[in-house]
Every structure is written in C-alpha cells, then in structure tokens.
Amino acid sequence: MTPLFRTTYSRKGILTLDKPKPPEKACPEGPSSIFDIAKKHNLARITILDDEMIGFKKALDACKDLGLELIFGVRFNICNNRSTEDKKSSAHKINVFAMNDDGCRELMKLFSAANSESDGFLDYSFLSARKTDNLSVVIPFYDSFIHRNNFYLQECVPELNSLRPTFFLENNLLPIDETLRRKTIKFAAENKFKTHETKTIYYENREDIAAFCTYKIITNRQMGKHQSLEKPELSGFCSSEFCIESYLENV
Q1: Which band of pLDDT confidence, cut at 50, 70 and 90, is reported for residue 213?
Q2: How many CB atoms lie within 10 A of CB 231?
Q3: CA separation (Å) from 235 to 16, 174, 227?
Q4: Nearest 5°: phi and psi at 25?
Q5: What are the sequence ranges of the domains in the chain?
Q6: What is the structure's pLDDT at 130?
Q7: Which of 78, 57, 6 lies closest to 244 in space, CA to CA?
Q8: Cβ(77)–Cβ(33) below 8 Å
Q9: Segment 14-23 long-range contacts (CB within 8 Å, at least 24 positions apart)
Q10: With bands split at pLDDT 50, 70 and 90, how would you rate the model's confidence at 122?
Q11: How many whole angstroms separate alpha carbon 250 and alpha carbon 226?
C-alpha cells in the first residue's frame, strides 16, 4: 500500500513541505510536515499527489537533503474533448506521475500546456500524444470516470488503450467505498489493467480531523453558505481515515 500525501500547496491537505526542525525549535501545535512524518516512521520514499506544480521544487530539495526518494504526481482534469465549451460535462480526474528527472520535465510541460491552452484540462488524445515511459498514468479511486459515471450520472468515455493506466484502490470507510472498489476492480480485470492499493493522506492523525475540516471550511468558503465544524458542508468527506495513523494500521 502506498501513502499519497496531499499538501497545503494545492489547498487539499494540511501537511506542509517544511524540513524537520530540531526538538527545541519544534512547535507541537503547529502543522505537521510530510518530512517530520517520514522521519518519525522511517519512510524512505515520499509520494506526493497535488493539483499544482508549485510545491515540486521545495519537495525535491527537501528530499535531496534528507536522502529520500520522491515520486511527484499531479491530478489533472480530463474530459472527452478539451476544445469544447461543455468539457465539464464529461470531466473527471486522472493522475500523472513523473518517474525520473526527464519525467519531471515532461510533467511540467504537460501542466503548463493544460493550464495555458484549456483552463487546466487534458483530454485522452492530448495526453496519449505526450505520454512516454517517463510518465505513469493512474486512474484515481475518487473522482475517476468510474466514480463520476456511477455516482454523479455523468457520461465520461475514457480512451485508455494507449495509456495502459494503473487503477488506484482505497478504503477510507466512506459509504461509497465498497461499491466503488467493486466496480473499479471489475473494470480493471475486464480490461487487463493493473490495480494498486493506496491511502490518501490529508493530515497526520485521526485527531487532526477538526483542524482539517476548519482548513477546508476556510479555503472553500462561499458567499451565502454557512459552514461550521458541526455542519462543514464538505462534499464527499465524512471520514477520519485519511491519515498516516490509519495507513500504518493497515500495513
């Protein structure tokens, strides 16, 4: 099982990319760092999955200084045709990971092209034309075409043969997890795609769920929408299992 760390750089998690501090300078009530977690639990590899490239350089520099292997990926919006105005009607998520130094450069170019040409969207023909062995394409567990088609009644039509992606699987005790796992495993088996067990990590321990919800309420605040810890209004989020504590128990 692979932990997929989400960081503050994409406003998806509350984990920072700060380097570990000596005990005398540590702030016990401050935010947890991915690298503090790596040091505490003897992790040799860090897999970061964000929605932006902005944190990549900081993560890379920290991993080099600490002797850690870094796998960096970006979650893209992808659709049937990114040139159409109604591309959001078939939109879902896809992960692209850089597997080496050349892959990092290719991922940066892919991210730049998507954001400069089509509001951050990819489509399958565009991605297939730029896919090399330096990049790994992965179908995420949540917000994939399987998730969107089955639970949001969208019509996402993937073109996967040239990409040969791996399908991520998760179990975070969400109500949809069992059904979504079954459908994902079935689709992957029928099309002879690989699957891989993962755990999305937004925060360090279960007790940090309140801090995470507070952060999400602040970053997702909308006019006329009242949110609180008692009623956070966070779509699709009702679990305290998105943490390294849960990951360690599962492995």
Answers
A1: confident
A2: 9
A3: 23, 12, 12
A4: -105, -5
A5: 2-250
A6: 95
A7: 6
A8: no
A9: 14/202, 14/203, 14/208, 14/211, 14/212, 14/215, 15/201, 15/202, 15/203, 15/204, 17/55, 17/58, 17/59, 17/62, 19/62, 19/65, 19/66, 20/66
A10: very high
A11: 36
Shortest CA distance to 199 belongs to which of 19, 39, 40, 43? 43
Cα separation, 57 vs 63, in Å, equals: 10
Q: Is 11 exposed, middle or buried (0-12, 13-18, 19+ CB in 10 A)?
A: middle
* 224 pLDDT higher than 90: no
- Per the model's pLDDT, the better-predicted residue between 243 and 26 turns out to be 243
Query: Which residue in 48, 42, 47, 50 sits closest to 66, CA to CA?
Result: 42
* Terminal alpha carbon distance of the chain: 7
Return the pLDDT at 223.
46
Distance between CA atoms of residues 156 and 208, nearest Å: 35
d(CA 158, CA 135): 18
What's the CA gap between 17 and 33, in Å, rounded? 6
At 11, the pLDDT band (50, 70, 90 cuts) reads confident
CATH for 2-250 (3.20.20.140, 3.20.20.70, 3.30.460.10, 3.40.1440.60): 3.20.20.140
Judge if pTM exceeds 0.90: yes
pLDDT single digits (tens) 21-65: 776 565 666 789 999 999 999 999 999 999 999 999 999 999 999
Please state which of the ranges 80-84, 109-113, 243-247 shows the lowest mean pLDDT: 80-84
* DSSP H helical ranges for the chain: 34-40, 56-66, 101-117, 124-130, 145-151, 177-190, 209-219, 244-250
